[in-house]
Amino acid sequence: xxxxxxxxxxxxxxxxxMVADQLAASMxxxxxxxxxxxxxxxxxxxxxxxxxxxxxxxxxxSGIAVQEFVEREQIPFENILIVCDDFQxxxxxxxxxxxxxxxGHNGLSSIIYHLQTDQFAxxxxxxxxxxxxxxxxxxKDFVLDSFPEFESSIVExxxxxARDACTTFIMDGIDQAxxxxxxxxxxxxxT
Length: 191
Fold this sequence. Notes:
The chain is 38% helix and 21% strand. By secondary structure, the protein is α+β, with helices and mostly antiparallel strands.
């Protein structure tokens, strides 16, 4: 998940799009406009059909695009992996889950609402940092800010590991991906 447009490209809220871009690039497929409110990149990897979807509905309405694509293509919920930012996880941390609540994330809330289930996997990418405001009212500005230069290497490492976690999910399933990538934060930052 993320927000379309260059002004959002390197913001904390667009980590999901960063992962999607790296995943598509690793499979050497470009994004193209889909038949709906999304961009997609499609390919086959070892006889597995893959679609990487980027909703253009903006974060808080991501569920509209996801529902449209899932219903049209009749995608089973167990084949869905949603990638998003999470300011409740330390910067550099990634966490995979089989299902669960939105945990206060408006984009996940939209998807749960539109799919009428929380029974889909999600990969949360940590964006909390020393620059995070203590006041909840300032969180919108924080997630829409670009990462500062001093965090860029941590972000690049996290996005690369998230891309690899997506590939493991595709090829080996959520349990294998969770076993491999749900390391403790201290382990993750130095791998």
